[in-house]
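Appendix B: complex inputs.
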Amino acid sequence: MTEALKSREAILTGAILVLIALISTRYPGFAAPGNLANVFNDTAPLILLALGQMIVILTKCIDLSVAANLALTGMVVAMLNTVAPGVPVIVILLIALALGALMGAINGILVWKLSIPPIVVTLGTMTIFRGIIFLISDGAWVNAHEMSAPFKDFPRHVILGLPTLSWIAIAAVLAFYVLTTRTALGRAFFAVGGNPHASVYTGINVGRTQFWAYVISGTLAGLTGYLWVARYAVAYVDIAGGFELDVVAACVIGGVSIAGGSGSVIGALLGAIFLGVVKNALPVVNISPFWQLAISGTAIIVAIAFNARASRVPGRVILKRAEHAA
Amino acid sequence: MSVTDRHIPDRLTTPAARVLKSWETLLLAVAVAIFIVNSLASPYFLNAWNLSDATFNFTEKAMIAFAMALLIIAGEIDLSVASIIALASTAMGAAAQVGAGPAVLVLIGLGVGLACGAFNAVLVTVMGLPSIVVTIGTMSLFRGISYIVLGDTAYGGYPPGFEYFGQGYVFWVFSFEFVLFAVLAVIYGVLLHKTNFGRAVYAIGNNATGAMFSGIRVQRVKFILFLLTGLMSGLAAVCLTSRLGSTRPSIGLGMELEVVTMVVLGGVNILGGSGSIPGVVIAAFVMGLVTFGLGLLNVPGIVMSIFIGLLLIGVIALPRLWSMARGK
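Resulting structure:
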């Protein structure tokens, strides 16, 4: 098990290095530390969301509402900033975290208390959250000149050579590493996805664990919402449209099993970095950014095919001919 | 108590009571109520031509919903339908640029739909991958190809005669799309409720392993269902492209949500195993009437999408809340 995961991470690291090497042959500056730091910073939102998504997928669920959650939280804090520019960034951060957690909790409650399939819940809340952005903003944009300087400066503020955004992603990776490997809740996420029935017998409340997974995913989406809006200094209805697909892609590429119960923080991180490198490489090697969507889609399909091959457990074949016929 | 006192009913409920208590009847009542509310709310609603226009709100989605209903009953799902529309429409647009006639365009649209369906089918049934993730992947891939081909441009210039599929009328107020919708409703109704294939679909949705051991070729049936869903998406692409007269890569964006909502609203269990085509037909009318009514009241499209999202969750949540409340 650990060996399989390790090899997956090794393969992915190798693939990322090969990719960077290939791009450097066309454009030598790409592999420069400064540029790689930029690529990492660019990928930080994807990393943050992929960590939350990983937890949700571990519990056999999926969260398609993360991008809409991000956009709604971003719009709310941006509008708050325009009407009350004096509100300190720490309060903005707390509001973003709370709002994101609330939206995650809505998903979680629907999955936990009403046992509605996760895909249906989050497909529904995805459109509802997006629609609410239109309702509160009336379709208008919040532009850079309407935001206060501290609001915009926070994610870009450089500490020890890296912007705060990058540091937040690094801190989140460390925190999630500890959460998944050193805490009871972290083990519960794996247990619930790996074998829900056995988890019940060991005293784990499956629904409540899934609820917490959604709250975590939502909280990260809320945090990323503020960081995104502040970094790009613009908020409108469609920001991060379709980003949920990239997030799912990052997890699947990182070896997080869509059937639940298997995956790792390092895998999700590498999956996100892989997509981030591809995304940043496209303009460098003169490929239109319109390729991005098809590349994400192909990556999802290739990765799940690869995962399924690696994790296929040969079952007991009782009626060999019948199984082949089916 | 003597033995003769015990009354053992032949059936638990009478057929009439079953029909009255069914989801479809409830839905029909909702449809009639919406119809009445709409005609009171807007003086323009009760007009044959207006109502005919209203059918365009659901005919294309309903075509896909019929096939999707069978797929969901069999325990699978296809989230790539809207992207298949985009890809099929892009292919038709490209063919129209080099002078293809209407008949060729229709064949291309249906062919691309079928090919996309086959691609999903191979990944799910041959490679054994979960349909939710496969179709999330192909949802990006199919639309992604449209973006690669079109970028921020659009195809127009469809040949004369091609507009019939989306804008033509068979007789009086009955549009080609509406007639197609009615014919497909009958075909899918017969297929699901009156054929061995339909029984197999239910059997697979209730217990795929059991179905396999009773001699049903589970993967083959699922393969056919993915093909049908692809084909219907291709057909919807023909109608939608013909109606709009142009193709952008964002065509039909988010339509998969409305199709799934229509199917679930029609009483199909999202976990598979039960549902009916008459239910989906009534759900199509309900959604068409609601969006048309909201349109007459000048409600913007994105607000309608909130409503559809609430509908999707509410339709599943309310019966569960109801049974939870009664259980206490």
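DSSP finds 15 helices and two strands in chain B.
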